[in-house]
């Protein structure tokens, strides 16, 4: 079976004006100016996707769209980040993590299945921040009704 090209567009059941729920302003305040600027760009990339296509796709598709938006914004990013964990000073097998590393300072985790961002999601992001030495994390969840954005610090 051959590959087929699919054009990503807003689906008929997507809300006309997709809502955004975020803790952005409260989260932004304690950050250094350079991190604020980077986070604003990351947020803009996610809002562009939300405004353009809304709901209805998988996290893999939204992640791909995020990579395209970051590229268009000329932001350096790594789609695959390897980490090398240790336990009791013993090395464990390396693994790759799903968040996108942006400018070596921020991680973006893209989700689409859940209707909320859980405490576990935030804890996992914190462990990824620790493993990568990134300074700030952003979890984006494209739900049926709105885009959820949550900031996470290490």
What does this molecule look like?
- There is one protein chain.
- The chain has 154 residues and is of the alpha+beta class.
- It has one domain (20-152).
- It is built from 4 helices and 10 strands, in the order E-H-H-H-E-E-E-E-E-E-E-H-E-E.
- It has a 6-stranded mixed sheet. A two-stranded antiparallel ribbon has the order 3-6. Strands 4-5 form a two-stranded antiparallel sheet.
- Strand 8, helix 4 and strand 9 form a beta-alpha-beta unit.
- The longest helix has 21 residues, at 33-53.
- The chain is globular.
- 28% of the residues are buried.
- What integer is the average pLDDT? 86
The number of helical runs is: 4
Ends apart, CA distance between termini: 45 Å
Strand arrangement, major sheet: 1-10-9-8-7-2
Instruction: Give the overall shape, derived from the CA principal axes.
Output: globular
The domain tally reads 1
Q: Describe the largest sheet.
A: 6 strands, mixed
> Taking Cα atoms only, what radius of gyration do you get, to the nearest Å?
16 Å
The poorly predicted ranges are none
| Approximate strand percentage | 25-35%
Order of helices and strands: EHHHEEEEEEEHEE
How many extended strands?
Answer: 10
Helix content bin:
25-40%
Structural class: alpha+beta
Topology record:
Elements: E1 19-22, H1 24-28, H2 33-53, H3 59-72, E2 77-78, E3 81-83, E4 86-87, E5 90-91, E6 95-97, E7 100-102, E8 106-111, H4 119-132, E9 136-142, E10 146-152
Parallel strand pairs: 1-10, 8-9
Antiparallel strand pairs: 2-7, 3-6, 4-5, 7-8, 9-10
Helix pairs in contact: 2-3
């Amino acid at each position: 079976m051959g590959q087929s090209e699919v054009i990503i567009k807003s689906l008929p059941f997507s809300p006309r004006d997709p809502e955004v729920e975020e803790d952005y302003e409260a989260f932004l305040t304690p950050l250094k100016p350079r991190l604020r600027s980077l986070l604003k760009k990351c947020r803009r990339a996610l809002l562009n996707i939300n405004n353009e296509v809304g709901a209805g796709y998988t996290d893999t598709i939204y992640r791909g769209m995020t990579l395209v938006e970051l590229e268009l914004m000329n932001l350096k990013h790594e789609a695959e980040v390897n980490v090398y964990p240790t336990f009791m000073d013993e090395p464990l097998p390396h693994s790759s993590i799903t968040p996108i590393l942006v400018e070596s300072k921020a991680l973006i985790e893209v989700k689409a299945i859940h209707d909320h961002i859980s405490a576990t999601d935030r804890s996992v992001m914190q462990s990824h921040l620790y493993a990568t030495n990134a300074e700030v994390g952003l979890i984006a969840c494209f739900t049926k009704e709105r885009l959820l954005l949550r900031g996470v610090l290490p």
